Structures are given as C-alpha cells and as structure tokens.
Amino acid sequence: MAGPGNDLDATRAWTKDQWRRALLAERRRVPASVRFAEAMQLTTLLTSGRVVGRGQTLCAYVPIGSEPGSVQMLEEVADHGVRILLPVVSGAGPLDWGWYDGREYLRPGPFGLLQPIGERLGESALRIADVVLVPALAVDRNGTRLGRGAGYYDRSLSLAAPGTPLVAVVRDPELFDQLPSEPHDVTVTGVLTPGRGLLRLR
C-alpha cells in the first residue's frame, strides 16, 4: 500500500487523522473494476455460511463511496436467509437500528449514509445480532479499528451481547501490525477482507 505500509518508522508516529487521510487517498485510487471484484469476493464469503448462517442476524451497513462491498452484497446475503440489521444515525448517542427490507427502502441519512426507512428498533437491538460487521479504514492485529472519527461505533459496540463477533471489513492491504489507539476505542475480534477471508484477531 502506498503511504502507510511502506515506512514503519515514519508511520509509527502518525496520528489517527494522518492515517485517515492516507488511507482515504489510497482508497480513492482503487479502480472501479477492482472495487467491483472485491465486492464480489466479499459477497461470496458472506453467502458461504462461514461468516453468518441462514436464520441468523447480521448487523451490517450499506457501503458508501470507496468502502468495500455493495448494496447488491446485502441483497444476496438476505436472499440466503440471513436477517440484516442496519445502523440509523440519531443524534450523538449510540446508533439506532432498523431491518434491511431491500434497497428500495433505503433513504439518504447523515454523513452520506443510506438508512432503512422502516421501524426503529432502538439502540439495544444490537444485542440480537449474531455477527456484527463494522466499517473501518484499517485494523491492526490487536483488534484496533480505525474508523472515520465520528465515534458512533465506539459508542455502540459495547451494547452487543457478550461474545458476539465484531468483525471489521477492510481491503487486504488495510490490515496492519499496529495502529494508534485511545482508551475509549472498542476493539474488534476479527477482520474480513476480500482475499484473506475471515481472520480471528483475538
């Protein structure tokens, strides 16, 4: 990866904002054909039964911009009998949640997100998820996740039931040995990448 991955001595002192800028710039350089191929790989992984199974509940999100994945990925996962919860931004507190009922029931929300328009289930709905997919710009092998900085997931993930897999979704080059962390950061237990599949972190 250009930038963060090349010079460990230089990046060791980087702030989170420096990491974010470099990672977002790198994602913007990824060709559309590569993003499409990676979304297909993630779809195959998520419909294989190895990440989440038929009849289970997956907490996911609608990928936007250069984020790995696609709305079509969610459609195919739902077609395999998986119930999908999507986040709803409501105020500054933990995320609210709603069911994914198809792309025609998504509407634009804050930060350019696409959100379900159906019933709001409340912050505690996260407790019914069997697996939680977490958007990330990068993750390290200790489970430190670098998000976009708004803090919604750090305020929300602690509400998941104990032992629930918390899985960051990133591109293959976005798994690092060490990222900057702060005491309030909620660590993830796994990472899902298009090429490496599901990896347990701790």
- N-to-C CA distance: 24 Å
Total E-strand runs: 12
Domains (count): 1
Helix content: 10-25%
- The rounded Rg comes to 16 Å
Across the major sheet, the strand order is 3-2-1-6-9-11-12
CATH topology: Rossmann fold
Question: Which class of secondary structure composition applies to the elements?
Answer: alpha/beta
Q: Supply the CATH superfamily name.
A: NagB/RpiA/CoA transferase-like
Q: Please tally the helical runs, counting DSSP H or I stretches of 4 or more residues.
A: 5
Calculate the mean pLDDT score and round it.
92
Shape: globular
Fraction in beta strands:
15-25%
Major sheet description = 7 strands, mixed
User: Low-confidence stretches at least 5 residues in length (pLDDT < 50)?
Assistant: none
User: What top-tier CATH class fits best?
Assistant: Alpha Beta
CATH architecture: 3-Layer(aba) Sandwich
Instruction: List the secondary-structure elements in sequence, H or E.
Output: HHHEHEEEEEEEHEEEE
Gist of the model:
This protein has 202 residues and is an alpha/beta fold. The chain has helices spanning 8-11, 16-28, 32-46, 71-79, 152-156, and strands at 57-59, 83-88, 96-99, 106-108, 114-116, 131-135, 138-140, 145-146, 166-169, 175-176, 190-193, 197-200. 23% of the residues lie in helices and 21% in strands.
